[in-house]
Amino acid sequence: MLYNGGMATVRIHGAEERPSQPSFYILNRVDEVSLPAIIKAMGGAENVAFMVEEVLIPSEAVMKVVQESGSKVLSFNFRKSDSRTLREQLMQLMQEGLDVLYLPGRPNSIIGTISDVPMPFMMQLGALHIAPVPVFVGGFRNHVSRAFTAGLDYDWVTVDFLPKMQSGPQTGERLLEIWMEACYKRYDENPAFEKSLPRVLVENLKKHASVELVDGLDGSSLPYGKMLGVAMALARWFKKNVKESRLGIILPPGKGGVIANIACFLAGIVPVNINYTSSESAFESIVRQGGLKHFVTARAFMSKLPQFPWPKGEAIIHLDKTLKGLGMAKIASWVAFAKFAPVSVIAKTFNLDARCKDDEAALLFTSGSSGEPKGVPLTHKMILSNTAQLLSKAWVPAGSPILCSLPIFHSLGLSFTTIMPMIYGFSMVTYPSPLDAKNLNDLIEKHKCTIVLSTPTFARSMLRRAHADTYKSVKYFVVGAEKLQETLANEFIEKCGVQLLEGYGLTETTPLCGVNLDRIGPTAEQPYYVPGEKKGTIGQLVPGLAVRITDPDNDDVRLPLSEQGMIWFKGPNVFSGYIGRDDLNAEIFRDGWFKTGDLGFVDLNGFLTLGGRRSRFSKVGGEMVPHEVVENAIEDFVEIPEGFTGRAVAVMGVPDAAKGEALVLLSAVHQGQLNQALEEIKNHLVAEGLPRLWCPREIIPVEAIPALPTGKMDLKGCQMLAYEALNIPH
To answer: Which residue among 64, 487, 584, 652 sits deepest, i.e. has the most Cβ atoms within 10 Å of its Cβ?
Structure first.
């Protein structure tokens, strides 16, 4: 059902399937455009009554609609009304034949929050013990930037009347779960995500033609308009000389890596950005799985990585040599074409719309931290929708500089520090290594970067080489890929006054799932709020991503969102399966839901708290012991030498005849007096309230804790060290 609300179209779904008996309807939000349409869909004002909170009152515009309707209004005060009296008043209205709509007010919150019902109200609504009818109201824009909005700046608003819930406990948790799934369904339908990624790139590189990529290695800059022209020239060469559907790219962040990826998109070739720290066996696996025959790189980069198992002969396409061979005149003609030709002409020239939506746009491989790399195809829709999911929650002006030092073979490096800046017109400040802390800090300060994406391991090195004003320009310093330790977060605030914002993602989800953003609190005008960040969590889940929790040991047993268990996701940014791995795919997908392998729970404001990877638990004496909890407690206790970088310790599980498994501690900071150190660690863990069963059995001194280029712990490498030290066959 369509309803013209004056400002925008209102799309009504499910109104004809509402309960026949008067019921209690709970809306996640409401505004002056959606409310008249809702009233009309419910048969008119004479059939409804409204429930509003006296302090968290809806906007003046909404209350004007309420007053003009002439409907009954049940006012209550959250802090003064008791649930029993409120229930009786609601039941009385329903006995009079009226449907009752709870109209939430507008708490203080960040953009992109899917619910305006703060946690205390969610809890009280559950205490009413009335089975509600959930109603999801969502504002959407037909644009690949902020596709979802909590404001009035939408192109259309959807209203979903959803099936009446069963009465019972955890009403708030079940409401949120239903709203998130409804948001996913409507977000997934957005026509903005039906476009092809190369068309979107062309549109926005032309729109932001004067914005520059700054190469932090040599200080040169390249305007986006010119970069598009160079990529067009290279795309033509690729189209003529590369006959395979996929092309390997072995380049770091910088002009070459960005141009090579754009050229692939324009040529209709799938770029496969390859981890250039891979072992020979891992590289061979990637080549075999991806069906790769050609690889783009640069001679200067090859000389810096003599240990890499470089392909031989004509398999290598030297980017520098190829561009030089095209000639300045030909490249200049393509630069002029990129500047003056309309998008429609460019689209026809390069057949940009031949592949879109669910077609494969890029192929990445997982880090292989716990086994052989797995191929994750990223579709056009996945990439466009996931970048929009972030920009639906974080407001950043066009032109804002973003530090781009994460490897392009990492999903965050491809989606958010390579593709996202070009789509939204952020200036790219590139650097080929996330390890060079001093130069990264200098670039942030010199170019006044607004956004920095990193990992806690890399961020720790940066902090050691920073001064009080290094990050003065930074609005969002987001870290992920590993647990953010509270001590590191506190050190950043104390030394530089910048808050590290923890996020969470997976290669399989393009990657972003949730992120902490702006600090939000009560104001004099509005005492109620939905926070934008929450300590100890990875932030609110992004709009359009649905979540469910199951028993860690039984996929068929659903748990409330607020109870820790296995995390499952469904969303437009979630992949459909690993290439060539039907065996794995059968284990991790059920009815369209993706089993992440991570444990966690979600609070009533939509914040996800991680409990760790299921694979990072050991069953010791029948009890599940989380490795990361033990690691964090030990790392906060042990003395870290001056100038030490990287991880200090790692907890691993090894077979134990008596208890099934036992924990051992790999340590890069203990080299002697191991028995004494182990006893001190055990005493500390017990003093911190951890069971003695969780204490490591012994310390294994190592030169360094194995880590992947992304900063993640190399679990496979750690396991091998532990097994070799203890002479355990593996």
So the answer is: 652
Backbone torsions φ then ψ of 224, nearest 5 degrees: -60, -35
Distances (CA, A) of 12 to 16, 39, 183: 10, 11, 14
Which residue, among 361, 365, 199, has the nearest Cα to 270 in the 3D structure?
Answer: 361
558 and 688 share one domain: no
Structure-block tokens of residue 215 = 């190469």
Q: Output 624 or 352, whichever has higher pLDDT.
A: 352
CATH of the domain at 359: 3.40.50.12780
Residue 29 pLDDT greater than 60, yes or no = yes
Determine the pLDDT at residue 369.
52
Return the bridge partners of 502, or none: 479
Q: Last residue of some domain: 193, 221, 240? A: 193
| 298 is a domain residue | yes
Whether residue 222 sits in one domain with residue 174: no
Dist CA 540 CA 513 (whole Å): 8
Whether pTM exceeds 0.90: no
Q: Amino acid identity of 482?
A: E
Question: Cα(34)–Cα(40) distance, rounded to whole angstroms?
Answer: 10
Compute the distance between CA of residue 182 and CA of residue 545 in angstroms, rounded to an integer.
Answer: 10
pLDDT the model gives residue 502: 95
Q: Which of 151, 42, 22 is nearest to 94 (CA)?
A: 22
Q: Where are the beta strands (DSSP E) in 560-648?
A: 565-570, 589-590, 593-602, 608-613, 617-620, 623-626
CA distances from 617 to 250, 490, 708, 729 (A): 35, 27, 20, 20
Domain boundary among 347, 382, 417: 382
Rounded to 10 deg, the angle between the 456-464 and 486-496 helix axes is: 30
DSSP-derived 3-state class of residue 403: strand
Convert the pLDDT of each residue in 106-136 to its tens digit: 898 998 999 999 888 888 777 888 999 999 9
Q: Could you tell me how many residues make up the chain?
A: 730
Tokens representing 368 are 């292989």
Report the number of distinct structural domains present in the chain. 4
Mean pLDDT of the region 702-719: 82
What angle do helix axes 34-41 and 60-69 make, rounded to 10 degrees? 30
Among residues 57, 55, 89, the alpha carbon closest in space to that of 74 is found at: 89
Same domain? For 663 and 590 the reply is no
Q: 175 CB contacts (<8 Å, ≥6 apart)?
A: 26, 122, 125, 132, 134, 165
Phi, psi of 644 (to 5 degrees): -70, 135
Rounded Cα distance, 8 and 46, in Å: 25
- Res 485: pLDDT: 82
**Phi/psi of residue 598, each to 5°?**
-100, 150
Boundaries of domain holding 575: 540-612
Structure tokens at 587: 């284990």
Residues 34 and 144 in one domain: yes
Number of neighbours of residue 114 by Cβ within 10 angstroms: 28
> Both 107 and 50 in a single domain?
yes
Cα gap 220→209, rounded to integer Å:
16
536, with CB counted inside 10 A (0-12, 13-18, 19+), is: exposed
Do both 12 and 103 map to the same domain? Answer: yes
On whether residue 433 sits in a domain, the answer given is: no
| Edge-to-edge strand list for the sheet holding 270-273 | 316-318, 295-297, 246-249, 270-273, 360-365, 375-379
pLDDT in the model for residue 296: 98
- Which are the contacts of 305, defined by CB distance < 8 A and separation ≥ 6? 276
The C-alpha R_g of the chain, in whole angstroms, comes to 27
